[in-house]
Amino acid sequence: MKRERESLLRPPAFAYRWKGVRGRAPELPIEELYCERVALEQLAEQRGTPLYVYSAAMIRARLSAFGSAFRAIPHTLCYSVKANSTLAILRLVAGEGAGFDVVSGGELQRVLRVRRKSANKVVFSGVGKTAAEMELALRAGILLFNIESSSELQLLAATATRLKKRAAVAVRVNPDVSAKTHPYISTGLHQHKFGVPIPEAQALYAQAAKEPCLNVAGVSVHIGSQITDVATFREALARMVGLVRVLRVQGHDIRYIDAGGGLGISYEGTQQNFERQIAAYARAVLGPLRGMKLHLLLEPGRSIVGAAGVLLTRVLYRKTNHRKRFLIVDAAMNDLMRPSLYGAYHEIVPVSRASKETEITDVVGPICETGDFFARDRKLSLAKEGDLLAILDVGAYGAVLGSNYNTRGRAAEVLVDGAKAKVIRRRESVEDQLRMESRLS
Length: 441
Ligand code: LLP
Hints:
Blueprint: E1 6-10, E2 14-22, E3 28-35, E4 38-39, H1 40-47, E5 51-55, H2 56-69, E6 75-80, H3 87-95, E7 99-102, H4 105-114, E8 122-124, H5 131-140, E9 144-147, H6 150-163, E10 167-174, E11 196-197, H7 198-209, E12 214-220, H8 231-249, E13 256-258, H9 274-289, E14 295-298, H10 302-305, E15 309-321, E16 324-329, H11 338-342, E17 348-350, E18 352-353, E19 358-364, E20 373-381, E21 388-391, E22 412-417, E23 420-425, H12 430-434
Parallel strand pairs: 5-22, 6-7, 6-14, 7-8, 8-9, 9-10, 10-11, 10-12, 12-13, 13-14, 16-19
Antiparallel strand pairs: 1-2, 2-3, 3-4, 3-18, 5-15, 15-16, 15-21, 17-21, 19-20, 22-23
The protein binds ligand LLP.
Ligand LLP binds next to helix 10 and helix 11.
């Protein structure tokens, strides 16, 4: 009975619940958007807007779907910290048994702050690791360094020797496979700065094997992000397996294959069946690995947290320039960069749904840039000034890409777990921002 009164938006996290009726004939049912058992209108009243809200149930469900899809082979899930690095989210992920993929010393420090013991499930990727970052990772005892150049390998060897530590290494290979995604988040072609072409990788392995403080342990690949055609993963992994065979013949003891992250989500909300999607992804990844006796590392970010977050924002003003309509909201491109940076589409829905009337409008923020928009010429439910909107699928690369542009404080973030809603990052004040600066006199 209860189910009939709920309309699911992003199961199991976000759903509309029937609330009552407003007005007289024709009576309109009012539906209210919930995150798990928390009403978002009430939450926004308590905590203010713009407000990021995440669902713990969704994150757990995604982690567990990964676990079941890959149960056929030994694997470690290394959640990609860059997607959403809030301490409380990292704690939730660690609590579910996952490890982490980090790309900076800062991200590693976040992980260590949450759970020191997780260090042995950390992989360190990135094209520009510094000696200080390597030192931090060596002292923490991470699982694997993904190396991206010969000079980096030399620096790691020197740093490990100085510290009398041993570093497990993989070379991040650039397999020259097109990820068919946005050019800014595609990484697996020779024109990109990432990884080492397969023929050159062999020379790096030979170089690494000569260093007593380096332990050649694996191969690694990451071809891009927001990839929806899983055949691309199969192609990249098939090339990697070819390399593993060659390296083994050359005497290298390759135990790990790091398949990176990159599994896309549906921002249109059409692929609601994540289980089916992850099963297709698992088939694409596992196919080429059959019989290879490799421990698989996965670095998903967006597919774990993307659909688990919304950004709540209030309509400040309605405005019409000639015939063009605008909803000016209190969130801006400093809170959520994806539409401005990649032209990314994010569904926008009313938190209280009472009217069936729609309009074609832009949704824009208060920042002084034409690029400060969330939607253009979008058909949306008619919204009044003061109404609350939810921008969907912003759990990944949302708050983490935030800035202080126009001296706007970063938005607060809340984690919902059942009926509980906890502030996991308080709203940044102007004082917080000014504390870093001096007036010189
Ligand atoms: N591993 C490595 C080495 C990566 O560079 C990335 C993402 C991941 C894993 C996680 O990928 P995911 O599973 O989240 O696709 N800001 C962009 C996305 C940048 C992705 C960067 N690297 C966006 O908002 O679409």
